[in-house]
Structures are given as C-alpha cells and as structure tokens.
Amino acid sequence: MAAPALADERVAAGPGGRARRGPGRRRDHLVGALLVAPALVYFLVFLLYPALSALYYSFTDWNLRSDANWVGLANYADLLFDDVKYPHFWTSVRVTLQYTLIAVPLTLVAALAQALLLNAIRRGANLFRLLLFLPVVTAEAAVGAIWRWLYDPQYGLINTLLGLVGIPGQNWLNTPELVIPALAFIAAWQCGISMIIYLAGLKGIPGTIQEAAVIDGAGPWQRFWRVTFPMLRPTTFYLLVTGVIAALQVFGLVYVIFSGNGRSVTGGPEQSGLTYVLHLYLFAFRYDAMGAACAMSFILLVFIVIVTALQFRFVRQEAS
Amino acid sequence: MGRGLVRGAVVATLATALAACGGSGGGGGGQGDAKQLTFWMYQDRTPQAGQVIEKVRQDFEQANPGVTVKIVKIPKDDYNTKLGSAVAGKSTPDAGILDQPLVSKYALDGTIKEVPAGLIDEADYYKGALDTNRAGGKLYGLPQDQTTVALFYNKKLVPAPPKTWDDLKRISAQVHAADANVAGMNVPKGDGYGAWMFPGVVHGAGGEMVDDAGKKVLFDQQPAVEALQLWVDLQQSSPRKITDSDKPFENGLAAMTISGPWDVPTIREQFPDLDFGVAPLPYKSEPAGNIGGEDSVVFSASPNADLAWKWLAFLAGAEHNGAVADAFGGFPVHLKARVVAGGPEQAAFLDQLKVAHARPAVPQWIQVNDEIIAPAIESALTGKATAQQALSDAAGRTRSLLGWNG
Prior knowledge:
- The complex is a heterodimer.
- Chain A is an all-alpha fold.
- Chain A has two domains: 2-57, no CATH class; 77-314, MetI-like fold (Orthogonal Bundle).
- Chain A has helices spanning 2-13, 17-57, 74-81, 89-120, 125-137, 140-150, 157-164, 176-189, 192-203, 207-215, 220-231, 233-248, 252-258, 276-286, 290-314.
- In chain A, helix 4 (89-120) runs antiparallel to helix 12.
- The radius of gyration of chain A is 26 Å and the shape is globular.
- Chain B is an alpha/beta fold.
- Helices cover 44% and strands 16% of the residues of chain B.
- Chain B has helices at residues 2-12, 14-21, 47-63, 76-88, 100-108, 127-131, 165-178, 192-204, 222-234, 240-243, 263-270, 305-316, 321-328, 346-354, 365-381, 387-402; strands at 35-42, 67-74, 95-99, 134-135, 138-139, 142-147, 150-154, 183-185, 210-211, 216-217, 254-259, 276-279, 289-290, 292-298, 356-357.
- Chain B is globular.
- Classes of the chains: A mainly alpha, B alpha/beta.
- Chains A and B meet through helix 2, helix 12, helix 14 and helix 15 of A and helix 1, helix 2, helix 4, helix 8 and helix 10 of B.
C-alpha cells in the first residue's frame, strides 16, 4: 500500500521535485515563520499569557498585593448569586444590555445615513468625511467634557434646541432613565469607523446594477431597499458583530462622563451608567478584588462568544 | 468567529494587561555609589506647587551628597490604579504618597514598612493626621498634609453663613424663594463623593458611622438618619435641575456648597468675580467635619528604605512641611511647621480641622462607601425610600458584607 502512495506523491511533486524544492521550501517556511513571529510573540506575550493568567486568577482571591489563594468556583458563584458581596452585578448586566440594544442599531443607522450622503455628493466629500470622522479621533476626555456641556440641564445646547420645538429640557445625565439613551447617542455620534466601512461597501456595488435598476424604473427608495441595502449585507453583518462586541465592553465613555471634577466613579445616578466593564474595573482596582474581576471578565468572554455564535447562526450575512 | 474570540480575549485580559503595563517608571534602586530614590506623588495642582516640591528636592540632595531623588508625578485619578499595578508587578517605587484608607490595607499584607523607631517624635505631629497612618496599633507612614471640607457661601446671596442646620435650611429656603432660578445649597448626591462627605454631617449630630473597635454599624441610628433627612429637606429649596449644572456654585446658581481648600485658588482664578466666603460646616449639636489629606509610606521592596524614610521625614519636618503641605493643597501636619499664609478663608478650615474625624479604619470601607452607602443616600434623596429605610437597609447590607453582628 505504501509504495503506490509514495509514487503518487513523487508524481505530484513533478520530476525531481523533492530534490530541487526541498531546501527552497524549508527556506520559505523559515521566512514565513520570521514574518509571523512578531505577531505571534505579541499574541503569546500580551494576549494569550495574560488571558491564561486571568483565567487562573479568576479561581483565586487575589487582591493585587498578597499571594493568591485558590477558592475554586467561589468567585463565579458569588458573582451570580451573592447579592451581599456584589449588589450591583446584575444591574451592570442590565445596563450593558440596554446600552448595546440602543447604541448598536443607532450607530449602524447613523453610519449608513452618513455614508449614503457622502456617496451622493460630488463636491467637498473629502471635507465632510473628515468632519464626520473627527469624533473618532477626538480624545475620550475631551468627548466627555464636550457632551457634559451639551447635556447640561441649565446651559446645554441640546435642551436649547429641544426648547425651540417646544420640548421641555431634561436633566439628561442625572435622570436614571435617560442616561443610557444619552450615552448611546454619543456612541452614534462617534460612528465614523462604521461610516468609512459602509462607504467602502457602497463603492463596491457595481454601477451597472444601479443603472439596470434605474432603467427598470426603480425609484430611489426602491433602489435603496431592493439593491443597495441587500448588497451591503456582508458589511452590515460585520459591523453588527463587531459593534455588539464593542458595546458589551463599553468603558471609556462612561468613565469620562461620570468621573473627574471630584466625582468618584460609581456609575452615574442610581448606578444607571454602571456598565459591566466599569463594574469590573472598580472591583479590580478600587475594591481590591482582582480575582473576582478576572471571573467577571471570563463570564463576559463566554457571553460574547455565545452572542457572536448566535449572530452567525441566525443573521443573514450574504449579499443578494 | 475568530475575530470575536480574539476581541473577547482582549477584554478578558483587560485587567491583567493593565497590570502589566502599569509598572513603568517604578523600580528605583541604588546603582554603584550614587543612590537614586524614586518617589511617587500626585500631579502638581499648580505650577507654583511644582516649584516648591522641586526646591525641597534640591535641598534634600544638597544635604545628602550622592543622592538623587527621582519624583514621578501621576494624575490623582489614576494614582491608586497605577500603584496597585506596580505592587502586583513588583515594581513599586522606594516611597510614595498613599491614600489614607489604603494605609491599613497595605500595612496588613506587608506591602509597606513600619516606621523605624526614632525616626520622628510623635509628639511633634497633629494626632488626627498621624493616626491615619496606624494599623494594628503600629505606625506605617508619615502624614504630609491634612485637609478638610467646609461650607463655601456666595456673599451676595448669603450675607452671614449659617451656623446650625436650622440656619442652613432657613437661608437655603430664603435664597430659593427670592429667585426660583437659584438653588439654596448644592446638596451632595448619592455617589462616592457624597458618601465620603456624609460622615462629617453625621458627626455634626453627635453620631458615628461605625464603631470599628466594637465592630458595630451605627449609621442606621438617629444622628445619621437626621443627617440624611437634612439633605432631603434641603433639596426642596435646591432642585437638582439647577445644581446638576456644571459648576453651579461658581456660576452663581447655587448659594452654598461644600468643598475643600484645594478649590479656593481654582475658583479665585477661574471665577474672579465670584464674591465668596468659607465657614465651618453647620451642625446640629456639635461642630464636626471630615479629615483628609496625604500620607506617605516606604514600600517593603525598597532597597533604600533608610534613605527613603529620611526623605519622607525631610518633607514632613518642621522646616519644610509648611510649604510641602501647602503644595499638596492642605495644611501642615507638624505642629511647629509654619502655615503658609492664605486668604481670609483659611481660618475656617483650620477651625474645622480641630473638630475633624478620621474615616472608619475598616479595610473594605471604600467598597461600603461606594456600593452601599452611596446608593442608600441616593434612594432617600430621590424619594424612593425614607432616610430611615434607606440607612437601615444599608446597615444590614454592611453587617452582612463585613460579617459584623452589631
């Protein structure tokens, strides 16, 4: 049995293939390995090793200073069921889910609308693209300061604008019910990266298809729903999946909005802005419970994996 | 899917990754003959404060030839995070500033050294400030400055500051009645900062938050309930729609607020037109307030511990502590140190310091403050519970968390 197989291989490699290609191949392997080495080292040292240590610490009572003692599954059980030790764990879960459900669709709609407008205009597209992208590259601290002013209950521009159309001003960042929508709106304002990806998606739709639709008598509305939107499905799917993952990890925004100026970070009025990762951060660095914080991060990891798998299973992703 | 996994892994390692990169700038050590000492402190509040510290550093180096002191300045909001990461990464500096409530924690697990016998004469220091460095009866650090909060009042709206709670409520109501767009008092909220201020008010009614020696929670008793009720009552003349605005006191929208000496120069500089005064906190039965400030410690891993203690004692000594404490935004802790002459508001803070109480020496106090007391205060302030209900519930949770019976 072995002989024919060997013969086949030699045939496949071509006459004298082995002798000639062998060393060359090995050199290729070496070059390949060298090329991926930096990324691989980075992955092993800065991602895999910390991730595995975090997994280990999630089974301990480590407080960053003393030696870690093994506590088994106690951190996980306490997080899920002990209301005395972690009174705000489930609050943080609810807050994060609410934020994700509002922020992700809002961001996608804002990004698509901006991309369609940019795609449509002929002059000044570069300028507008720059302006719309600016919020992404603005320092998080500046974003926090700007939006605190915009949402100010006394001088805020948003209340002034609402007043023009007769809507009474709100105390946005200090009313528990309004905190999450207000934060999601900021996230949608920062949709520049999604907008750029949508724009690339739009440029990838062949002009001939749009022309054919025009010839067939389709109006702009029909062209959007029947041609553009279905053609963008892979883009939308990608942005949905990455957007959900990012939203479940929201941290910087709430941190800068609710901290600074003497306020300590306890997550806004009645913990209404206490997102999952902010809660995790507080236990890791403020309440001396790094072990529990590591357990929280693994619960989040499992949740993200499940949510992502469900999206791959149930959301349509092919263009049509 | 692969991408999702990787990104999930990134957040999963957030905590550890932060820990891994926090160590930069630490790890001072002696090399050869020339010794280098690394000292961590908060970012300078003002350029002038930076000059004061630089001058003291040069004086110390002159007095100790061959020694260089490397000062690493870290924004206050990030300080505890960075320090915690440095401890975890075993790259602590030789010495550093340490937040008062962290001293007992760090002492109990051996992260910091005990003050060597004979370094200072304890009788030279304010007892309250020195006591914030004790754990298990031993001294683990030197205080560098002490501070407290007091009542700031807008002189245009409040001609004479209130002395008692009744005065406070009356004046607040008068201000709001005179102009519905102005709040009487910037009432603290149910967040970490409000919960930090709350004990000072409780002491003003003759109460205590806890009895840490006897392991008893006391903030569900009458004085604390009355203190919380005071804040609830004050909100009638101080709607949140006004006080939640940016800097309501500075902008003249709230007639009174509670803050510390660190705010005085900032307000004078940014709001030169605001005519304000500072008075001790109003009280019910006895004058009282909170104590705060900076302690300084030597880390166990330091190879230059003796030199590090010498540096800390130099900062806290009679000769320099006046200027150093002023640079840190507080008042001297050494009895013989000269208080840097300040504005007319200084007397109020010094009066307040005489009756200031230290925070409970409970290692988990920050967590109790943030996760239990703050939400309780908020639920009373928003009317979701009475002051008594909110505090009884919080006291029960605190007992369960700490494993106390009383």
